[in-house]
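hiii, so i know i said id send this last week but things got crazy w the move. better late than never?? heres the sequnce for the chain we talked about at the cafe, plus the structure i predicted for it. fair warning i was half asleep when i ran it
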Amino acid sequence: MPKALILLLALILAAFDAQAERIKDIASVAGVRDNQLVGYGLVVGLDGTGDQTTSTPFTIQSLASMLGQLGVNMPPATSLQLKNVAAVMVTGTLPPFAKPGQAIDVTVSSMGNAKSLRGGTLLMTPLKGADGQIYAMAQGNLLVGGAGASAGGSSQQINHLLAGRIPAGATVERAVQTALGQGDSITLELNDSDFTTASRVTDAVDRVFGRGSAQALDGRVVQIKAPMEPNKRVAFLSQLENIQLNPGLASPKVILNARTGSVVMNQLVALDKCAVAHGNLAVTITAEPQVSQPGALSGGQTVVTQKADIQIKSDKGEMVVMPAAATLGDVVKALNAVGATPQDLLAILQAMKAAGALKAELEII
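okay and structure toks below
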């Protein structure tokens, strides 16, 4: 075989391996999923940064109920003024196949008017699922990544002080049954609906396990025959999720974040030749305090007034011809030629899409 042909085949195989993905990366097994947990609890041990109980009565009610369960009887008319207790919501994720005794992480978030949860301890809190059943119990010391201080009317804060995490802070008390070992088949669910990818998954599975092993039900679901024995099924799934294939190409898409001005586009975005005019409008307002001093023995009072200076500056917007671009790099260069900020690109890209020049789907988040 000629060396040139061998080199060509090697390059083709290298390109195939670079684009190939595992089934594990593009699909998931139906029924193997996380479950969300939530609970209501109390955080104690705060350094005077807890809830102001006058405006958060549920904190007092929760504390009184807890103390009653511990044998401490409080008169109904008692009005507690606490500063070291905060009412919180506790959330966590129960992973698939979790068994009783396993530890999971939880997030603790203030729901009252506490100033900080730093240094607090979460008391025993039951975590419930969507069915109202208790699946875990949480308790432990909070880790808050923020810091803050205030004095003399001034304050300084770094990061967030009203939410923290407790690593391995909850213990699983009940397992969720997963129907993985039932029936003679398992179902794969693609992360993104695509008929091409579903067809290629079916072909790849048939090549490994034999023709007729897989059947695409639609553009997202693929049904695969699997052995009945649990041990063999686990080994089968291990082999299945490591099968490699080239998934179908994603559709060209541009993601616009209107709050932050972020613009993200994939490599399939193309651009037709068009003309764009862009100009910036800047409004500057400057306020300067002035003191009006009355004359001697006039009986007047000194008054401080504000003098405002308003300036409007409009940059000249020139018409820029943007050439047709077939690659992501060319599109980026063409957009940079306009000289617009990321916030301005939100309006420009939407106008280009309306004019039919931008060959991509716009998604605003």
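btw The chain has three domains: 35-172, 179-245, 253-364. thought thatd interest u
miss u guys!!
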